[in-house]
């Protein structure tokens, strides 16, 4: 389960980075903001899973 969540977090980070980059390239501030939001969501998921791993051992 934790590996699935970690993978999901990485996927969200990558998707967000791509969206942010595309938004900047075309000058779309809304797309850029959504991309940053997705990255933050992925970062939070990664941090949560890493914390779980620390307390698991």
What's a quick, concise take on this entry?
By secondary structure, this protein is an all-alpha fold.
Describe this structure in words.
By secondary structure, this protein is mainly α. The chain is built from two helices and no strands.
Helix share bin = over 70%
Give the number of DSSP strands: 0
Uncertain segments are none
- Strand and helix order: HH
Going by helix content, strand content and strand pairing, the class is mainly alpha
Task: Spell out the key features of this protein.
57 residues, mainly alpha, 93% helix, 0% strand
SSE blueprint:
Elements: H1 2-26, H2 29-56
Helix pairs in contact: 1-2
């Amino acid at each position: 389960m934790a590996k699935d969540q970690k993978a999901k977090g990485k996927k969200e980070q990558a998707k967000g980075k791509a969206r942010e980059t595309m938004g900047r390239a075309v000058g779309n501030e809304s797309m850029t903001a959504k991309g940053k939001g997705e990255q933050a969501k992925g970062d939070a998921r990664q941090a949560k899973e890493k914390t779980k791993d620390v307390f698991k051992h």
